[in-house]
């Protein structure tokens, strides 16, 4: 049962504000009374707290779902605390089993190094890089050696490890659990010992691992860290968590026009959750905007403001303005200012073949299906004849609302 979040009553203004910021959008803050005491100590002594977030570079880039915890880090960073962006180059070689029903294959050193190169650069679009401590856990994990690993393993029991939900389900289901998988939460927990963290952040699926860090810090005679879990962001569909494999994501390196349009595609209901978890506006500002929409203001206005804020964060104010104008042009049936140019030969060329060769459809059969659905335009005219052949010339070809190409056919 989750503990009830207490309010900031009877606290100093600074500590109360810090607590409110900590709790914004959070799933759990444990133990909350300890976190309040840490905040009070920091205010009294002027010594900032050490706040840790670890990410394993399991993919070459990140999407905005990953930035939910990064946003929280930035909010706490702006309060003056030290944030530590930890790249799990050692733990990636083990493979995190969290939420898995099978053993996660470990990454090679080459994959880890390639992915790590982009992680911090992309995280720096949210964090203030001048105030961020970046660390790699191989720094203290590699020197442990066999003896140190065995000594670490002695500080946690198999019974407690099997309390973890995914391990329990796999064991009861007769699915294999490799011994090395027990090492992952131990090594993540040891990161907290090495960094002397006061607070560790993670998604709700990381709660067990974060609690292991608390336990190990006590075993090593340290004051245990508090843990703050953030919910997993729903993707564009508003149902499943944001994931590349589900295709419902927005990459932080995505083009501004695409990023802007994707934010506008979410539901009016999901928009407010995204505001809470992704926006840097205060909750008072968000609630005021929500009241305006409830009072009759078009919810699209609020969604456009969110789309511009997110696009601006990962690109620039100018790019966000241009993306908005591009979206307006498309919604009016206009052509964006910048579209790819493709040179093709073979005129006269069948329309379905042209779509395939121009990269606007994966195959001629899919091209024909798009034509049947009324989703293909040539120079703004809807194409309904699948037998159409285009002679040599220049054409603006559009598929759906977002795909355009200027085809130079010879």
Radius of gyration: 25 Å
> H/E series, N to C?
HEHEHEHEHHHHHEHEHHHHHEEHHEEEEE
Number of helices: 17
Strand order of the largest sheet: 1-6-5-2-3-4
Number of domains: 3
Q: Name the structural class.
A: alpha/beta
Shape: globular
Mean pLDDT: 88
The proportion of residues in beta strands is 5-15%
Count all strands and give the number: 13
Profile the largest sheet. Answer: 6 strands, mixed
Structure explained in plain terms:
The protein is an alpha/beta fold and 410 residues long. It is 45% helix and 14% strand. The protein folds into three domains: 13-230, HUPs (Rossmann fold), CATH 3.40.50.620; 256-331, no CATH class; 341-409, RNA-binding S4 domain (Structural Genomics Hypothetical 15.5 Kd Protein In mrcA-pckA Intergenic Region, Chain A). The strands form three sheets. The protein has a six-stranded mixed sheet, with helices on both faces. Strands 7-13-12-9-10 form a five-stranded mixed sheet, with helices on one face. A two-stranded antiparallel ribbon has the order 8-11. Strand 3, helix 4 and strand 4 (132-136) form a beta-alpha-beta unit. Helix 1 (13-23) crosses helix 2 (32-45), helix 11 (256-264) packs antiparallel against helix 14 (299-314) and helix 14 (299-314) packs across helix 15. The protein is globular and about 80 Å long. The model is unreliable at 1-5 (pLDDT under 50).
SSE inventory with pairings:
Blueprint: H1 13-23, E1 28-30, H2 32-45, E2 50-55, H3 67-77, E3 82-87, H4 109-123, E4 132-136, H5 138-141, H6 145-153, H7 158-161, H8 165-172, H9 179-195, E5 199-203, H10 207-219, E6 226-230, H11 256-264, H12 268-278, H13 283-294, H14 299-314, H15 317-331, E7 341-344, E8 349-350, H16 351-357, H17 364-372, E9 376-378, E10 381-382, E11 389-390, E12 393-399, E13 403-409
Parallel strand pairs: 2-3, 2-5, 3-4, 5-6, 7-13
Antiparallel strand pairs: 1-6, 8-11, 9-10, 9-12, 12-13
Helix pairs in contact: 1-2, 9-10, 11-14, 11-15, 12-14, 14-15, 16-17
């Amino acid at each position: 049962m989750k503990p009830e979040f207490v309010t900031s009553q009877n606290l100093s203004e600074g500590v109360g504000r810090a607590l409110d910021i900590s709790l914004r959008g959070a799933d759990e803050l444990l133990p909350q009374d300890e976190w309040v005491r840490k905040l009070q100590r920091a205010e009294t002594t002027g010594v900032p707290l050490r706040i840790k977030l670890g990410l394993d570079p399991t993919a070459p880039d990140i999407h905005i779902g990953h930035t939910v915890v990064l946003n929280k880090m930035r909010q706490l960073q702006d309060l003056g605390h030290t944030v530590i962006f930890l790249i799990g180059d050692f733990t990636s070689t083990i493979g995190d089993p969290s939420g898995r029903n099978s053993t996660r294959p470990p990454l090679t050193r080459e994959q880890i190094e390639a992915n790590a190169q982009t992680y911090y650069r992309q995280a720096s679009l949210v964090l203030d890089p001048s105030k961020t401590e970046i660390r790699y856990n191989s720094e203290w994990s590699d020197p442990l050696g066999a003896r140190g690993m065995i000594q670490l393993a002695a500080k946690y029991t198999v019974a407690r490890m099997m309390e973890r939900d995914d391990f329990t389900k796999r064991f009861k289901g007769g699915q294999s659990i490799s011994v090395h998988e027990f090492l992952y939460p131990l090594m993540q927990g040891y990161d907290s010992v090495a960094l002397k963290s006061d607070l560790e952040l993670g998604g709700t699926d990381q709660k067990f691992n974060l609690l292991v860090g608390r336990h190990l810090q006590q075993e090593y005679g340290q004051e245990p860290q508090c843990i703050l879990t953030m919910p997993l962001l729903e993707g564009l569909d508003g149902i499943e968590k944001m994931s590349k494999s589900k295709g419902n994501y927005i990459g932080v390196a995505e083009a501004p026009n695409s990023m802007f349009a994707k934010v506008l595609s979410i539901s009016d209901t999901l928009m407010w959750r995204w505001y809470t978890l992704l926006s840097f506006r205060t909750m008072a500002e968000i609630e005021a905007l929500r009241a305006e929409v409830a009072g009759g203001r078009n919810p699209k206005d609020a969604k456009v403001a969110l789309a511009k804020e997110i696009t601006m964060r990962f690109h620039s104010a100018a790019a966000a303005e241009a993306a908005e104008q591009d979206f307006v042009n498309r919604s009016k049936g206009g052509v964006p200012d910048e579209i790819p140019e493709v040179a093709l030969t073979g005129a006269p060329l069948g329309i379905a073949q042209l779509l395939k060769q121009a990269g606007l459809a994966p195959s001629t059969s899919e091209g024909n299906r798009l034509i049947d659905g009324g989703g293909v335009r040539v120079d703004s005219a809807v194409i309904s004849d699948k037998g159409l052949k285009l002679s040599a010339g220049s054409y603006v070809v559009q598929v759906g609302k977002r795909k355009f190409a200027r085809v130079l056919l010879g």
